[in-house]
Amino acid sequence: MTSITTTGRAGRPQRRSAWRRRDAATGYAFVAPAVIGAIAFVIVPLGAVIWYSLHEWNVLANTFTFVGPQNYQDMLSDGALHDSLIASLWFSLGVVVLNITLSLFLAVLLNQHLPGTTLFRVLFFTPVVVSLVAWTIVWGFLLQADNGINGFLAEFGITGPNWLRNNVTAMISVIVVQVFKNVGLNMVLFLSALQSVPEEIQEAARLDGAGAWRRFFSITLPMISPTMLLVAILTVVGSLETFALIDVLTDGGPGTSTTVLVFYLYRQAFEFNQFGYASAISVLLFVIVLALTLLQWQTRKRWVFHES
Amino acid sequence: MSPDQLTPERPTAERTSAASVAGAHGSSPARRTRRAFGSQQLGRAALVFLMIVVAVPFVFPIWWMVTSSMKTTSEILSLPPSLWPESPSIESYRQVFELQPFAQQYVNSLYIAVLVTVGTMAVAAFAGYAFARIRFPGSNALFVLVLVGLLVPSEVTIVPLFRMVNSAGLIDTHWPLIVIPILGAPSVLATFIMRQFFVTLPGELEEAGRMDGLSRFGIFARIALPLSRSALAAVAIFTFLKSWNLYLEPLVYLSTKSNFTLPQALTQYVDAYGGPIWNVQLAATTLTVIPVLIVFIAAQRQFIEGLANSGLKG
Amino acid sequence: MNPQIRRRHFLSMVGIGALGTTALAACSDGDAGDEPADGPVDLRMTVWTASEDHLALFQEIADAYIADHPDEVSSVTFETIPFEDYTTNLTTQLAGGNAPDLAWIFESNAPEFVSSGALVDVRETLSGTEGYDFEDVGESALELWEDGDALYAYPFSNSPFVMFVNTDRLAAASQPNPAELVASDGWTYDAARDISAASVAALGGAGLVVRDFDYMNWTNLASVWGGWDAEPWSADGTTCEFDSPEMVAALEWFQDAVFVKNAIPGPGTSADFFAGDTTMTITQISRASSLDGSFNWDIVPLPAGPTQQENIVGQAGVGVLAAGANTQAAANFLAFFTNPENSASLSLYFPPPRESLLNPQTLAAGNPLFSEAQLDIVVDSISGATTKPSHANFAQVDTTARGALDAMWSADADVAAVAADVCEAIQPLLEG
C-alpha cells in the first residue's frame, strides 16, 4: 500500500527519462482537477476560517475586527465548549464502537449462507439509501414518550423511558439512530472483505485444530484489518460530522447532553452570530479530526495486516 | 452465541456440536459427514431467527413511514399505535404535490446527484490513478493536500464557501451543489478509493502496455480503467447517496422552492408555525425513499458485488 | 499510502492556506451597498410563511406597487425560509453578504436586530408617506421595534394567545364550561388545571397543552406566568428574574400540574389539540385554520393567575435591512405594503396593529370559523397585551435557559433550585 510501483527495467536510459518526463506531465494533468479543487474548496476556505477565527465578527452589526488569539483564549474558559467536547467524545465513541461491532456482526451473520441471506442483506442496507432527514423524522416520532416505541411497549405493560428527555437515553438514542442509518454500508464492506478471505487458510488452520473463535481472531480479523482501518477512519470522521440528526432529534438537549462539537459550532455561528468564535471552534474541530486520523494511521502498522 | 457460528467453516468428523454446523459453508455433499441433521437445522433456524430480530429496527421505521403516510394525523397520534391504517387513503399524497413543486424538486435532486456522480467518478479516477501509479515530483505532498478534504467537516467551511459562491453570484442556483462536491472535500473519499484500487494493480500489466507502445493515457484508459469497474461502482454508489442526502448545503445555498432538493423539501411540509403536517410529510418522505429502494433492490447484487470488489480492502 | 505527513508538506499546506485567506479577507469587511441603483430594482423579502394564500396576497400587493412605480421597482420576490431555521438562515445570508432587502423578524429577536444597527430607521418614510395614517398604528405595538425616536420595523402581525377548548371532551367528562366560568370570574389557572386533570382521568388523552412549548420553547410559558405577574428578566434586560418569588410560584404551579395533577402532558408526549384528544390548549388564533370540524370547540381568554389576568401577543415585524442594496426603495415599498388599504388585506391573516382595523368586523373576513362573540374575545386579547420575552442577546439566552430549565421537567425537581441555576447560567449573558 505504501510503495509506488516502479516501472520495470525497460528500455535505455534516455528513453526512460523521456518517458519519465512525459509521464510526470501526464501525472500533473491527471491530478490537476482534484488538486485545484482541493485548493479552491478546501484549503482556501480552511485558511479563511483560520483568518476569521482571529476576528470578532458581528454579522448583524456588520463589524469585523481583528482580535488576535482572543477567541482561542475564550475557548479555554468556555464551560459549554468543554461540555460539548465531552458529549462529542461519548457520541463518537458510542457510534464507532457500536457501528463497527454491529456491522462486523451482521457481516459474519450474512456470511453464513443461511436461507434468506439476500433478503436480509437488502434489509440491513435499506436505511443507507433512505435520506437522512427522512430517517430522522421517522425516528423522532418513534422515540416520543407516549407513542411510537413506547406505545408498543405499553401494549405489553412496559413503561418505556422518555427517550429524548433524559440525558443518558437521549445520547443512546442519537447514537443508535445514527448507527442504524449507516451500519449497512460498513456491513457491506466487511462482508466483501470476509468473502475474500481465502478458504484455504481457514481450512489449514482448522486442520491445525484452531477453534472457531481462535480462527476468527487470528485469521479473519487480521485478513480484514485494512477494511477495518478504512471503516474506522470513515466512521470516526462521520461521527464527528453528525449534525442534522442532532438538530432534528434533540436540538442538543436535554440540557446540553447531546450538544456535540459540530452542533455547538453551528449554534455559535448561525444561532448566536458569533462567526469569529465559531471559526475558532472550526479550527479546533479540524485539529481534532486531523489528530485522530493521524493517530489511526500511525498505529496502523501495529494492527493492519498488510502493513507489516 | 457460540464462536463456531462466527466463522464459516466446514463441519468435520471431530466436531459434532450442534452449534458448529451453524456455519456450514460451501461444503460439498462429498465432504458431508454423518451428523445429527436435526441439530444442524436447529442451529441454522436459530440464526435465521436472530437475523429476523435484528432486522426489526432496520425495517420498522420504514414500515411505519409508509403506513402512516396513508393515515390521518389523528390516527398517527392515536394510542395504541396501529400497524395498518384504518382506512388507507392517498389523500396526503395528493397534498404532497399541491403544497410544493415536488416533481420539480425530485428532478433537481436526481439530476444534481447524477451530475455529481459522473463528475466525481471522472475526477477521482484520473487523480486516484495518477497518485497510485505515476511518479512525479511532489505527488505525495499533493496527495496529502487533497486528503485534507477528508478531514474537513462541511460545517467547518460553509461560511467561507457561502461567501465565495455569493461573490460569484451563484446563490440560489445548483452550481455550488454540483461543482463543490465534484472538486471539493466530498470527492476526496472517491479519489482515495480509486487510489487504493489502482495501487493493487499488478505492475506487469502496465509494463506490458508500455511494451506495446501505449502512452500513459492509453494505459490508463485501456488497461487500468476497465479493470477498475467495481471500484468505480463503489464510488458511484457512495457519491450518489451523499449527494442525495445533502442537507446543510442546499439549506444554505438555495432559497427558491422550485430549486430545492428533496431533503430540504421534506422539512417544508409544515404548517405556518413550523408544526409538521405528519401524514403529508411522511407521504413525501415515502416518495423520496421508495424509488431509491426499488433501484437498490433491483440492482442489489451488482451493488454489493461492486462494493465488494472496490479495492476498499486496503 | 505514504503520509508520514512530513513537516514541510504541512507547512506548504499552511502556506497555500494563508495565500487563500488574503483573497477572502478582501471581501469580508462589510459590503453594504447603499449606492442607489440607476434603473428599477429587484426587491427581496424573506418571510417564514409557506402558505400559498399568504404569498399570493403579498404578490398581489407587490404587483400593484410595481404597476404604480415601474421606474423604481421591477420585481419583488417573497422568499420563504422555514420557520424553524428562519433567523439562522437570515443570519447566514447576512454573513454571506447576501442580505435581503426586507425581512420578517420574530419579536424575540427584535432587540438584537434593533440595537445592532442591522435595520434601517423607517419612521420618516412611513409617517411621511401620503395617506399612511401613521397615528393609526397602536403605540404599544411599536414599542419593541423602537430605539429612541427611530422605528426599525413595522409590527404587521399581533396574534393573541387565547385558550381553545374542546367542548365535546368537557361534556363527555361532565366538566364546567370555561365560558361560563369567565362570566362568573372563576376562570383561573387552577380551574383550568382541575378541569383538564378531571377530563384526562375520565377520557385519557391530554388535558391542557401550552402549544409549541414542548419543553423546548420556554418563552411560550409567558402565557402562563403572566398570571403570576412574573418576568424572566428585568425590563432593561440586565437582571435575571427567574428566581423571583413570582416566577418560582408560577413554575411550581406548572410543574405540579404536569407531574402531580396530570393535567398537562409531560415532556416528550405529542398531544395535538386539533386531532381532538386534548381538552384545552393555549395558542394563537391563527391556529384555528387547523380545525377540521371533527369536534366542537370554543375560545376563551387566557385564565387569570393568583395575581392578575394578562393578555399576551406573539408579534412579528417587517423591517428594511441596512445591508440590503436598495434601502430607500425597500422602505418605500414597506410604506405601501403596510398602508391602510393593504393592512386591511393583510389583516385577513395577520391581526393588524392599526387601531381602526382592530374590530370583529375586520377580523371576521380572515377568521370565518369564529363567531362575533369569539372575535370580541380576540380583539380584547390584543388590546393592552404584552409581548413574549425578548432580549438583545436572545439566541444565546434562549438556548442557555432552555438547557438549564431541562432539569425542571422531572417529577422530583426542586423548582426553586433549578430557577436559581437558570439565573446563574444566563446572568452573564444578560449583562454581556
Largest binding interface between chains: A-B, 121 and 122 residues
Shape assignment of chain B: flat
What is the quaternary state of this protein? Answer: heterotrimer
The amount of helix of chain B comes to 55-70%
Structural class by sheet pairing and helices of chain B: mainly alpha
Count of helix runs of chain B: 15
List keywords for this structure.
heterotrimer, B: 314 residues, mainly alpha, disordered N terminus, C: 432 residues, alpha/beta, nine-stranded mixed beta sheet, two-stranded antiparallel ribbon, 11 strands, 15% strand, globular
Gist of the model:
The complex is a heterotrimer of chains A (308), B (314) and C (432). Chain A is mainly α and 308 residues long.
Task: Give me the secondary-structure topology.
The complex is a heterotrimer of chains A (308), B (314) and C (432).
Chain A: H1 13-52, E1 55-58, E2 63-66, H2 70-76, H3 79-110, H4 117-129, H5 132-142, H6 148-155, H7 167-195, H8 199-207, H9 212-240, H10 244-249, H11 261-271, H12 275-303
Antiparallel strand pairs in A: 1-2
Chain B: H1 37-68, H2 73-76, H3 91-99, H4 102-133, H5 139-147, H6 154-167, H7 175-183, H8 188-199, H9 203-211, H10 216-227, H11 229-245, H12 248-253, H13 262-266, H14 278-298, H15 300-308
Chain C: H1 7-25, E1 41-47, H2 52-68, E2 73-80, H3 86-95, E3 102-106, H4 110-116, H5 123-128, H6 139-142, E4 146-147, E5 150-151, E6 154-166, H7 167-172, H8 178-183, H9 189-203, E7 206-210, H10 222-225, H11 245-259, E8 278-284, E9 297-300, E10 312-320, H12 327-337, H13 340-346, H14 360-366, H15 372-382, E11 386-387, H16 394-405, H17 415-431
Parallel strand pairs in C: 1-2, 1-3, 7-8, 10-11
Antiparallel strand pairs in C: 3-10, 4-5, 6-8, 6-9, 6-10
Helix pairs in contact in C: 14-15, 16-17
